[in-house]
Automatic annotation (TrEMBL):
Domain Complex 1 LYR protein: 9-66
Name of this chain's protein: NADH dehydrogenase [ubiquinone] 1 beta subcomplex subunit 9
This protein's record includes keyword Kinase: no
Organism annotation: Phyllotreta striolata
Pfam families membership: Complex1_LYR
Keyword terms: Acetylation, Electron transport, Membrane, Mitochondrion, Mitochondrion inner membrane, Phosphoprotein, Respiratory chain, Transport
Length: 140
């Protein structure tokens, strides 16, 4: 799928990636802020360029510079894609509730009554849509 990204979004993305790279490269808040201010000045110096060919050329050069100067271990948020805890919390499947003990189910009578009703509705909908073909044999 072709996605057209505006010039503004490309600049914003480049700036944010540059700051994240600076954050990965420099320990300590003071060093990070100093280099972040220098990076901001570089972007602000080219803010007024109206010629899109020059602006696109600057973005290309900036992305190449970022790629060449990328930190060996870039910072990743732990729950973001590429982070160490990405998709670690597994959603419990619905069928687990079928194996609850009746005493556990008795603690939530309204919920389980509604759940049983919806399960029967789902089975009925399935049979109406796909039928009850008993000649079907699963592959071996």
């Amino acid at each position: 799928m072709l996605v057209i990204v505006s010039h503004t979004r490309r600049v914003q993305s480049l700036y944010k990636r540059a700051l994240r790279n600076i954050q990965a490269c420099f320990n300590g808040r003071c060093l990070y802020r100093y280099n972040a201010v220098l990076m901001r000045k570089r972007f602000d110096d080219n803010k007024g360029i109206k010629d899109m060919t020059i602006a696109n050329d600057l973005i290309e050069k900036g992305e190449n510079e970022l790629f060449k100067g990328m930190h060996d271990a870039p910072l990743k948020f732990i729950n973001s894609p590429g982070g160490v805890a990405y998709q670690r919390v597994v959603e419990t499947p619905d069928w687990v509730l079928d194996y609850w003990h009746p005493l556990e189910k008795a603690q939530y009578p309204k919920y389980f009554a509604r759940r049983e009703k919806r399960k029967k509705e789902y089975i009925k909908m399935w049979l109406n849509e796909y039928g009850n073909d008993s000649s079907f044999e699963p592959p071996k």
